[in-house]
Amino acid sequence: MLIKPLISILALIAASGVIRRFKHGAISRAGFLFWIVLWIAAGALVWVPQITNRLATFLGVGRGADAVFYISVILLFYTVFRLFGKLENLEHQLSDLVKKIALRDLDDRR
Amino acid sequence: MKVVVVIPAYNEERTVGEVVGKCKMQPFLSPPFQGGDEEGVKTIVVDDGSTDRTAEVARAAGAIVLRHPINRGLGAALSTGIDGAIQLITNNSITNNSIIVTLDADLQHDPAEIARVIQPILEGQAEVVIGSRFMTTGQHDNRTARWIPITRKIGNWCGNFFTWLLFGIWVTDSQSGFRAFSGAAAEKLRLRTSTMEVSSEIIREIARLKLKMAEVPITVKYDKYSLSKGQGFLRGLETLWKLIVLKFFR
Predict the structure, then answer these.
(1) What residues 8-47 of chain B have any CB closer than 8 A to a CB of chain A?
(2) Strand B213-217 relative to strand B179-182: parallel, antiparallel, unpaired?
(3) Which partner for B108 in B15, B40, B225, B226 could form a disulfide, CB atoms 3.0-4.6 Å apart?
(4) A94 by DSSP, 3-state: which?
(5) Beta bridge pairs of residue B44
């Protein structure tokens, strides 16, 4: 059963990273709570997998592992699309800035 | 009456001078155009962060050069060029009856056809004209269309299909770089995309703003050089993905 300690260590490393970033002010209080809860949950689920079965019964999915899998995929999709949207907005803002700089050439001609 | 030609250019030192020169030579002196070159036609080259001498060559040929400090792509360059053209028109207080033309810097379009492309706007039949490489009419047998490589034809047809599917307008050449806008129509455009998907975004804007659109057949000159500048298969896929994002996530 190597998987249990391995995931626990990874969760610990991730959680300590979250704490460090929060101390440096890199993430907000809400972000800090979200990530800490997420990693604690990950650690807990490895040692007490029965929790996922309850979750699965509640959602009507069947197996606990499936429930975790489905929820992870949904979260990942959501994150990717949010990132994509943010990236596109950044691209647009950058182009807008470049446009403003370029249009100065026109003002200089007057 | 004033025509402003907008030419987006990225590393086009080989061809941009000739394109600007040909634009300047157009006989826009006859009515309804008045005055000489200075009055009738202006060319704006948007140098999209080129690493070669594009800006110098364009300036030497007589164009107004707007320079992007970094490369941002076709969409950003067109947006800068069109805004610059509008500013130029407003500065010279000729808001009525101005026309903004866009064409490519790689010599695939013939500036001699500008007069024909802007005709529907002059006649009040359209606010936007798309120059189509694939359209054939009774008067104009589009012979050059035969020389377009088959892969490009298929790619363009896919571009037309997805533009229609996403934005609801069928055009025979949605990816064409040769266009004309009435000044008033150009002012209403809100272009947000930075790269190749801008061609379809313009079609989307035509649909959103319910602009009167016409298509005019144009000739096109493809060679190794201009082909290397267009969209290959992978760029096409990337453009499609960005169009889907544009449609559903923005």
Answers:
(1) 46
(2) unpaired
(3) B226
(4) helix
(5) B6, B64
Say what the ipTM of the complex is: 0.82
Residue range of the domain that includes A38: 1-48
For residue B47, list its beta bridge partners. Answer: B9, B67
Domain ranges in chain B are 2-248
A35 and A76 part of one domain: no
> A101: which chain B residues are within 8 Å (Cβ-Cβ)?
68-69
Judged by a CB distance cut-off of 8 A, whether residue B58 touches chain A is no
- Amino acid (one-letter) located at B85: A
- Closest B-chain CA to A96: B76
Q: pLDDT digits over B168-223, tens only? A: 889 999 889 999 999 999 999 999 888 888 999 999 999 999 999 999 999 888 77
pTM for the model: 0.78
Residue among B181, B250, B178, B244 at smallest CA distance from B209: B181
Please give the residue of chain A at the shortest CA–CA distance from B69.
Answer: A98
- pLDDT above 90 covers a percentage of chain B that reads 47
CATH of domain B2-248: 3.90.550.10
Is the domain of A44 the same as that of A86?
Answer: no
pLDDT digits (tens, 9 = 90+) for B74-133: 999 999 999 999 998 887 766 567 899 999 999 889 998 998 899 999 889 999 999 998
Using a CB-CB cut-off of 8 Å, the residues of chain A touching B194 are 91-92, 94-95
Question: Does residue A58 lie in a domain region?
Answer: no
B70 in contact with A at a CB cutoff of 8 Å? Answer: yes
Beta carbons of B249 and A88 less than 8 Å apart:
yes
Please state the domain count of chain A: 2
Mean pLDDT for chain B?
85
